[in-house]
Structure to design on (377 residues):
């Protein structure tokens, strides 16, 4: 049994802590005591700690007794938190999905003899793991990831609910999207290149460009065509574009009756209630990973992995928390089991290339009823 600390008691952080508590001693931290109380109410094995991760000294002192850190802080805190964890010489699994390049910390991690597995969720996460595995076995020409978290019941006008902050969702809608075409990195506005795609059990969804390739732009430079697109119910993108083009997501403050406020702050407050996912509200995660290439015999192969996951009423756990959190706890357990021990910063594709690790992820998720179905074309 190992001594684990989870930073962040949100929907995904608490799900990971509860999963790890099955076999390990687990502490969970958050600045918000209510979030900690909620997590402990779900699982009384968890040991709560009120912690402000921006207080570097307090953070490093708090994590010092633990064997492994699992970091689930908000994206805007992620890079500096991860850096502080590595400086404290602690091995870490990270799902904070910060905008900075995690590979910039790899040399530091090697110096400190730390293993840091980052971006270890559903997407980025399992898509990278699948790509890493097949990159060892095929000469890949094309990689595509289509992914989205959706409410089971649509509510006009947005037909959308988020298990995380609207600020993080809006970031996805405003950050320029990068993809790779014919070996060149192309940058386009998020929400561009809308296409309609059919999924069993859901129907037609719309896909749009988002900045989800992240580390594979750097680690898989030899693959000429790579793209990630986000999925929503039809009509959602038009409403978002109206807000975006009208300036509701601008960060520059405006003065209203003597009060300075940014349109983004205002919009986030309004959308928080509109997009907030209820604790027992049913939602689904849909993902399709397509890898195309040639094998050693020169035969063309297309491998497709599909995921359709739903809210678990038995444990009151959202699908997004399950699909994201259990990928990260799989990484934590395979590290603790000694399957991966290299030092440095490792995005999931560099872990998934190992066949034992790849199978570990799939089996761990299957044991928790998160099932990826494979079709070979």
């Amino acid at each position: 049994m190992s001594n684990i600390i989870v930073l962040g008691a949100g929907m995904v952080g608490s799900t990971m802590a509860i999963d790890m508590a099955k076999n390990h001693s687990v502490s969970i931290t958050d600045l918000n005591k209510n979030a900690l109380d909620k997590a402990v109410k779900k699982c009384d094995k968890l040991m709560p700690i009120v912690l402000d991760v921006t207080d570097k000294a307090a953070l490093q002192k708090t994590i010092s007794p633990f064997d492994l850190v699992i970091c689930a802080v908000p994206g805007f805190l992620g890079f500096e938190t991860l850096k502080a964890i590595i400086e404290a010489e602690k091995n870490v699994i990270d799902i904070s999905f910060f905008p900075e390049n995690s590979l910039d910390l790899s040399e530091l991690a090697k110096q400190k003899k730390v293993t840091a597995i980052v971006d270890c969720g559903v997407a980025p996460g399992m898509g990278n793991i699948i790509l890493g595995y097949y990159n060892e076995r095929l000469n890949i020409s094309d990689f595509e990831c289509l992914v989205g978290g959706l409410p089971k019941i649509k509510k006009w006008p947005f037909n959308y609910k988020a298990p995380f902050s609207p600020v993080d969702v809006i970031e996805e809608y405003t950050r320029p999207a990068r993809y790779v075409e014919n070996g060149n990195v192309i940058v386009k506005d998020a929400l561009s290149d809308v296409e309609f795609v059919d999924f069993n059990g859901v129907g037609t969804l719309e896909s749009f460009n988002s900045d989800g390739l992240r580390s594979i732009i750097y680690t898989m430079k030899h693959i000429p065509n790579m793209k990630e697109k986000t999925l929503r119910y039809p009509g959602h993108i038009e409403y978002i574009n109206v807000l975006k083009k009208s300036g509701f997501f601008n960060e520059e403050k405006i003065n209203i009756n003597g009060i300075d406020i940014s349109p983004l702050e205002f919009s986030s407050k309004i959308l928080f209630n509109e997009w907030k996912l209820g604790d027992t509200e049913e939602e689904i995660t849909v993902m399709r990973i397509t890898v195309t290439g040639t094998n050693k015999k020169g035969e063309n192969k297309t491998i497709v992995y599909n995921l359709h996951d739903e809210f678990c009423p038995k444990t009151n756990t959202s699908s997004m928390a399950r699909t994201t959190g259990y990928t990260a706890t799989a990484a934590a357990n395979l590290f603790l089991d000694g399957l991966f021990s290299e030092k440095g910063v490792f995005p999931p594709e560099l872990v998934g290339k190992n066949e034992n690790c790849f199978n570990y992820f799939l089996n761990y998720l299957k044991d928790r009823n998160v099932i990826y179905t494979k079709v070979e074309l």
